[in-house]
Each structure stands twice: as structure tokens, then as C-alpha cells.
Write a structure and sequence with these properties.
Layout: H1 6-12, H2 38-46, H3 61-74, E1 78-82, H4 85-94, E2 102-106, H5 111-123, E3 127-131, H6 136-142, E4 147-153, H7 165-173, E5 178-182, H8 187-190, E6 200-204, E7 218-222, H9 224-238, H10 244-255, H11 257-275, E8 283-285, H12 295-301, E9 308-312, H13 316-325, E10 330-331, E11 341-343, H14 355-361, E12 367-371, H15 377-389
Parallel strand pairs: 2-3, 2-4, 4-5, 5-6, 10-11
Antiparallel strand pairs: 1-7, 6-7, 8-9, 9-12, 11-12
Length: 391
């Protein structure tokens, strides 16, 4: 597969056909596997072969197909699929950390990611330092000789700050720290995270990989030694496994991943350009706009602005009125879906944060996150403009 394009890898990567030579990947809906002998069972528990399985919590043929496919697509040595995106974030971090370790993280994160860092890791004796992810001087000051890992979202949720992966990785690697990147907003299509220096890449497969609002899933990618030697023992014993049926849905999602994401990005760029400067909006945030503070960095890292933009309506009252006036765009809290989705972060995904935290992160009462779907771009623009007229 090495010389295949990403689009070809997304269709054919990792395929394992049964004796029936099916075209569409098989769903192995089984929790366990039968051995030819007691001796074979003993041998398998002592050392698994490359295509051997003992229990679905440890691995499953359908799940392994998805892991192989996304690893090939991302350019990673290996991958481990999980029950959700947050299971992936938790597994990636907790599996490598212990009491007394030090982590440096960007402070602009999804609410549940913040919970893992602020509540879970610190509860077990891990020291966490937060920085402005866009400020390299803060990273340099916070990273210490004993820093074990750094963590950040390559594009932050929901304020769309873009982090310099190569620069932060260089600072982290200088002290031997592991670079863990939540890459959801960048998407696997535009990802160059590993090439830029990331050691571990995390996705919520619930988002663009499935892309059709059907199933939860997550995946952690990295070097084989890390995935099988550090991550897998933690996840297989703590139970964060992806179900075979969900893995099959992710395989089907990957077949159209690049086509969908590029179409969504094209519409997002068009919407951002059309809405920038609108008199009903106090600001439009989108990395593909030249007005975005990290516009040049975004294009250097990704080559495009992604599928999500943010609109600031100025107040919660105006944001709610806008949301309630939308006809095509649905109100929900997912993203990366075929359907366009609008979210009010301050009262949903980031509602647990104190008001001063929200203010520091730029999550204003009027901020609306807009995940652009596969509807006609002109239809979406009319829908948004008509909702703005309602103000």
C-alpha cells in the first residue's frame, strides 16, 4: 500500500477477506474465538500472532481492519480503536503517565478533554501545566526537563486556534517528551501531524470518519512499540474496545472520507468568506480566512481551513434566536457530520467551565460553532442569512 494515494488506502486498506471472498468487509460479531486445541489456546495467550485473536476486548478482525486502514491513511505504524473519542484521549494519556509525571497542555480544549487533564490526571498525582497554545514562548517556559508529555488540539474546539505542531514538537522532543495531538478538527484528510513531529495522534471517529451520525468511536495512532506495548495493555484491561459493528461503520465511512471532507471544506470556506463582515455578527472565526491569526500556519500544516467555523452573535439571546431560526442546519453537539450542525458551546459542550474560564478561552455567550455538512453551499448560505435576518 505504500505507493497508494490516500483515497485508495481509504477504500482498500486493511481488508481481510473470509473464505467467501466478500466484496464488502465482513462484520465479525463475536466476543470470543475457538481454538483447535488447548495447546493452541495456551500459545495464543502467551504470544498473539499478527492475525490472531482471543477476545473482542483485546481485538477483533473487523476492528483490526479499521485500525490498519486508518493507520495507512494517516501514515502511522499502528493504531488501536476505542469505544469513543474520549476513550481514545483518556487511553492515550493515562496509559503513558504515572504519579509524579508532568504534562504541558494547551488550555483551549474540548470540555471533556479539560476534565481528563484537570480532574482525572491530577487526581492520580500527575502535574499539569496549561499554556496559551498559540504562544511558543509559553510552551518553551512551561516544558521542563522532566516533562513527560505535551497535549493539544491541532485546531482548538470551539475557537479554532491553530497550534504549530512542528514547533511544539521540537520543544517537547528536546527534553524527551511525547507529543500527543487531538487532530479531530484537522481531520485525517488534511493531517500531516506525524510528519510534522507528533508521536501520538488521536481522533474521535464519531466525527468525520463515520461522518453520518451513526456510531461512537475513537482511535489512537502512533509507533507500533507505543500502540502495542503501552496503549494496548491499558485499553484491553480497562475495556475501552470498539464494537465490531461500529468498526464496520467506520470502514464504510472511510471509503468516502476524503470526498466528504473536501466538499465540506469547500462549503465552509465559501460560507466564511460570505459571512465575514456581516453587520449581524461581531466576528467570524475560520482558519481559511486571511483575517484568522493563524491563517498562514493553517495552510502550511493542512492546506485548507477545515469543515468548522464559528460565528459570534454578540449575546446568548441573539445566539439562541439565530439557532432557533435555522431551517436546514440542525441544533446538536456533534460535528463532522453529513448534516450541518450548529452548537452553542457556552451552554452545551463547554457549559461546565466557569465563566472566567470561558472568557479566557474566547467562548463568549454569543459564540456559535457551525459544522458544515454536505448540503448545497448556496442552500446553507441562504439558511444562515435568513436566520441572521431574524435578529
Amino acid at each position: 500500500m505504500d505507493d497508494w494515494s490516500k483515497r485508495t488506502k481509504a477504500v482498500h486498506g486493511g481488508v481481510r477477506r473470509s473464505q467467501y471472498n466478500e466484496v464488502s468487509e465482513a462484520i465479525f460479531m463475536t466476543q470470543g474465538f475457538v481454538y483447535d486445541s488447548a495447546e493452541q489456546a495456551e500459545a495464543r495467550f502467551q504470544q498473539l500472532g499478527d492475525d490472531e485473536f482471543i477476545y473482542a476486548r483485546y481485538g477483533n478482525p473487523t476492528v483490526r481492519m479499521f485500525e490498519d486502514r486508518i493507520a495507512a491513511f494517516e501514515g502511522a505504524e499502528d493504531a488501536f480503536a476505542t469505544a469513543s473519542g474520549m476513550a481514545a484521549v483518556n487511553g492515550a494519556l493515562v496509559s503513558m503517565l504515572k504519579a509524579g509525571d508532568h504534562v504541558v497542555s494547551a488550555r483551549a480544549l474540548f470540555g471533556s478533554c479539560l476534565y481528563i487533564l484537570e480532574e482525572v490526571l491530577t487526581r492520580y498525582g500527575v502535574e499539569v501545566s496549561f499554556v496559551d497554545g498559540t504562544d511558543l514562548a509559553q510552551w518553551e517556559a512551561a516544558i521542563r526537563p522532566d516533562t513527560k508529555a505535551v497535549f493539544f488540539e491541532s485546531i482548538s474546539n470551539p475557537t479554532l486556534e491553530v497550534i504549530d505542531i512542528a514547533a511544539v514538537s521540537k520543544l517537547a522532543h528536546a527534553v524527551g517528551a511525547t507529543v500527543v495531538v487531538d487532530n479531530v478538527f484537522s481531520t485525517p484528510v488534511y493531517s500531516n501531524a506525524i510528519a510534522l513531529g507528533a508521536d501520538v495522534v488521536v481522533y474521535s471517529a464519531t466525527k468525520h470518519i463515520d461522518g453520518q451520525g451513526r456510531a461512537l468511536g475513537g482511535v489512537v495512532l502512533g509507533a507500533k512499540d507505543y500502540v502495542r506495548g503501552v496503549l494496548e495493555p491499558y485499553l484491553k484491561h480497562t475495556g475501552g474496545a470498539l464494537s465490531p459493528f461500529s468498526a464496520w461503520l467506520m470502514l464504510k465511512g472511510m471509503e468516502t472520507l476524503e470526498l466528504r471532507v473536501r466538499a465540506q471544506t469547500e462549503s465552509a470556506q465559501m460560507l466564511a468568506e460570505a459571512l465575514e463582515g456581516h453587520n449581524a455578527l461581531s466576528r467570524v472565526l475560520y482558519p481559511g480566512l486571511r483575517s484568522h491569526p493563524q491563517h498562514a500556519l493553517c495552510h502550511a500544516q493542512m492546506g485548507a481551513g477545515g469543515t468548522v467555523l464559528a460565528l459570534d452573535l454578540g449575546s446568548q439571546e441573539r445566539a439562541f434566536k439565530f439557532l432557533n431560526a435555522l431551517k436546514i442546519v440542525v441544533i446538536s453537539n456533534n460535528l463532522g457530520d453529513a448534516k450541518s450542525i450548529a452548537t452553542h458551546p457556552a451552554t452545551t459542550t463547554h457549559q461546565r467551565l466557569a465563566d472566567d474560564q470561558k472568557a479566557a478561552l474566547g467562548i463568549t455567550p454569543g459564540l456559535v460553532r457551525l459544522s458544515v455538512g454536505l448540503e448545497g453551499g448556496n442552500d446553507l448560505l441562504r439558511d444562515v442569512e435568513n436566520a441572521l435576518l431574524a435578529l
